[in-house]
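In response to reviewer comment 3 from the previous cycle, which asked for concrete evidence that the modeling workflow produces usable outputs, we include below a single protein chain processed end to end. The sequence was submitted unchanged, and the resulting C-alpha cells are shown without manual editing.
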Amino acid sequence: MEIRKIEKKDAEAVGKLMENVIDETYDKEPDKIRKALKANFTGDGLAELMKDKQAAFYVVEENGEVVAFLFGWLLFNVFTIYWVYNSKEHRGKGYIRKLMEHLEKKLIETGCYKIVMYAYSKNKFIENISKFGFEKGVLLKKSMFGIEIQKLIKHIGDYENAEKERRIKIVGEAGQGIKLLSFSLAHILSQLGNEVSLNMEYDSAVRSGNISADLIFSENKIENPIIDEADLLLKFARTRQWFPAKELIIDDTICGKKCIDCAVQCKNRDQFGFKEDAVSKFGNKVFVNMIALGKILKYLGINIMLINIEDVLPPKFVDKNVQAIKYGFSFRDAL
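The workflow returned the following C-alpha cells.
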C-alpha cells in the first residue's frame, strides 16, 4: 500500500471514486443534487481543481489500483476536507484511518493547526467520526440544495499558539457594491461558526470617493477591529495609499494585465477581470461585487454549496447576483 499525492494519471480513477461517493452519500436526495456535485468534482471540474495551488489530493494505491482518495483545501494553516472515500471492494482494511494519519502528519509539518470537514448530516460517517478525533461544530440548517450540513473540527499541531485571526481588506469606489459584498461575506463567515468583525470606512465624497472594509474572522473573540496588515487585500480601485497584505486579488482594469512597477505594488497577486466580466457576462458593472464574492469564497476554500446564498442577499436582482457569485467561484450548475 502506498499513500501519495495525486498525479495526472490518477484523474480517471479518482473521478470514478468521486462519482461513487456522491451517489452513495446523496442516494436519497433529488438527482439534480448529484448532477451538480458531479459537475463540480468530476471531469473538467476535477481537472480544474487538480491545478489549483491550494487544493490537496491524496490517494491510496494498492497493487497499482487507486482504492481511496482524499481531497481538501489548505489556507491560513487550516485544512478543509471536501471528500474522503474508500471503494466498497477495499473497505475494512484501515485505508481511511491510515490516510487520515498520513494527512495529519503532513499538515502538522506545514504548521497547520486545524482540520475542518463539512459532512451531509445524514451521512453514516458522522456516527464514527469521533474515532478520528473530530468534534461537531455548527449545524448548517439549509445549504444551497436545502439539506443540512454538519461542520466537524479537529485541532492538531500547536493549536494553542496558532494565529487564528484572519484579516480581509476590501478597497473600492462608490457604486461598486463594496458594502453589499462585505456584509454578505461577513454573514457567510458567521454562518460557518466564526466570530466576525466588520468595519466600514467612507471618504467624505460619498458618491465619488473610495470605500474600504476591514473584515476580520476568527474562532476566538476579536479584540481589535482595525486591520494593520491584511492576509488578503481585494482592490477594485487605484488609491494613493498602499496597504500591506500577504495576498492580493486585483481587478486588472487598475493597471492592465501585465505586471509593471507602479503604485499598486502588486506582489503576491491574482488578477481577475471583475469589471470586464460583469459587463460581458451579466450586462452591467454593478455585478462586479458578486463576481468578486464568488472569487473570495473560492480562495478561502468555502464551498458555496454549503450555504443558501439567496438567504444572505437582498431580493433585488437576487437571481443574477447568485449567478454572478457562481461565476466568480467557477461553479458548474450541471453536467
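The helical segments are 11-25, 31-41, 43-51, 95-110, 178-191, 274-282, 288-300, 318-329. We consider this sufficient to address the reviewer's concern, and the full set will be provided in the supplementary archive.
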